[in-house]
Write a structure and sequence with these properties.
55% strand, 83 residues, mainly beta, five-stranded mixed barrel
């Protein structure tokens, strides 16, 4: 069995029931200029107990599709919001 991908990101929305939206940022080199640029993508992740709040930093893991948009689940909370 292939290992599941694990990503870390910031929760930008906790409005959905049992769902959080996680913004994951990665740094890549620009194909021509070589400058390091930020690329981000939002993932819908499953949060069974509705315990994760906006601003939290979380780790999410790939899983079987739970709905049309949700194919990730929250593994753990890494940090509270800093503000």
């Amino acid at each position: 069995d292939m290992p599941k991908r694990v990503l870390q990101g910031t929760v930008v929305s906790d409005k959905g029931d049992k769902t959080v939206v996680v913004l994951v940022e990665r740094k890549v080199a620009h194909p021509v200029y070589g400058k390091i640029i930020r690329r981000s993508k939002k993932y819908h992740a499953h949060d069974e107990g509705n315990v994760i709040k906006a601003g939290d930093t979380v780790r999410i893991e790939e899983c079987a599709p739970l709905s049309k948009l949700k194919t990730w689940k929250v593994l753990e909370k890494v940090a509270e919001p800093a503000f």
